[in-house]
Amino acid sequence: MLQGFGLAAGLGLTLDAGLLTGGKTPLAAFAAAADSPSSASPAAGATPIQHVLIACQENHSFDHYFGYYPKAGRFGVPAGYSQPDGNGGKVTPHHESTPFTQDPNHSWQDIHKEWDGGKMDGFYTVNGETAIGYYNDADIPYYYALAEAFTLCGNYFCSMLGPSTPNRLALMTGTAGGNTSNTVNRGSLNWPTIADVLDAHHISWKCYNLGVGTGTSLEDFNVLVYFNKWQSDPRLNFSEDDYQSDLKAGTLPQVSFLITEALVSEHPPADIHWGQDEMQGVINDLMNSTSWQSSALFFTYDEGGGFFDHVAPPQVDAYGLGMRVPALVVSPWARRGYVSGQLYEHASMLKFMERLFGLPTLASINHQFDTSTPGTNNDAANGHPTGPPSPPRDGLAHLGDFFEAFDFSQNPNYYPELRR
């Protein structure tokens, strides 16, 4: 059942008209459709934004980070909020005393138990005290300063009621293709990604790997490595030094994917301050560059990681939406001190790029999952050879594309002092 947004029961089943595959492979159909941009796209040069940057950290829910943000309003944790303790009693959230926690269970099965059909009452019974801790202004002051200076999204959900890899697949392709766990082999996938669309329309892009390691963890935070076409592409391997050099030289690509390695990803049990420091450096470098006034940076988290959230995600198909996660829009053109109530999920960033650059939607290109998904690695298939459909969600009209979070009448000479 769709909850909390007054949407009709059929929401999510109507996609862009699109081009049928006609028996071709999805990538062959994509090649045929490459010259068919979305009719809803603005004319080139309609906005001052020339650079889109996407940063996705790991495993925190909205309430875990921003539930007690004083300006969260109706999106924050309500007064008197509690969770069942499993023994007939109630437990209330507690402020975390350290910048690191245990790692709650967040598999497909565990997240569904926490979600409990939309009751949102399984966090403590599944994961104990760890799941109902929270941070506040004293713990993540830079993130709260970003919220005060730019746009915080109060209704941004991850894509799936499951773990990291399927959610990151959805961020890059609009769908996880039926995958519901982190068990995906490198080079095994072949459906169209946003990288295919960008390349076909001559939009430049790079992946910058941030931190002291390789830029990936055991879960491969850059999920393009799972796609046969992209796993060896050199554009996956740029470093933080390359990011800084491109900013200084004025050679930032039109789309940048900022991918942190495990120690600065904020994935428990990592110290969240390490991740906050990394993101502060990334954003400060952007603000101090000539690209700042033509940039929009979207900063979110791949999934809730098992941490509590009180808002039931609307269900648009058998896989999600997933738990609500923090999301910020950072740009001199972003509405300032604004908490958005627009419904967003990871595909919303795809929708933004598609509209900005006049690109076709992935939903109009990829029809591989319109009627079913492979049953392998698919908990929603319940042991059957195929699972429920999962077409790319960038074709859903009810999902925002972030344009409402911008005010292009603002003075772009905006360099707020972001306290720390």
Descriptive account of the structure:
There is one protein chain. This protein is of the alpha/beta class. The protein is 21% helix and 13% strand. It has 10 helices and 16 strands. The chain has helices at residues 26-33, 62-66, 108-115, 123-127, 141-149, 164-173, 194-200, 240-249, 272-287, 347-357, and strands at residues 51-57, 83-84, 90-91, 94-95, 133-134, 151-153, 156-157, 205-210, 238-239, 255-260, 295-301, 327-330, 338-340, 344-345, 373-374, 386-387. An 8-stranded mixed sheet has the order 9-8-10-1-11-12-6-13. Strands 2-3 form a two-stranded antiparallel ribbon. A two-stranded parallel sheet has the order 4-5. Strand 2 (83-84) and strand 3 (90-91) form a beta hairpin. It is globular, with a radius of gyration of 20 Å. The chain starts with 25 loop residues before the first helix and ends in a 33-residue tail after the last strand. Mean pLDDT is 90; it is low at 1-26, 28-44 and 214-219.
Number of strands: 16
Strand order of the largest sheet: 9-8-10-1-11-12-6-13
Helix run count: 10
What is the 3D form?
Answer: globular
* Helix fraction bin: 10-25%
Counting helices, strands and paired strands, the structural category is: alpha/beta
- How would you characterize the largest beta sheet? 8 strands, mixed
The arrangement of helices and strands along the chain is HEHEEEHHEHEEHHEEHEHEEEEHEE
The oligomeric state of the chains shown is: single chain
N-to-C CA distance? 42 Å
Radius of gyration: 20 Å
- Poorly predicted segments: 1-26, 28-44, 214-219
Beta fraction: 5-15%
| Average pLDDT | 90
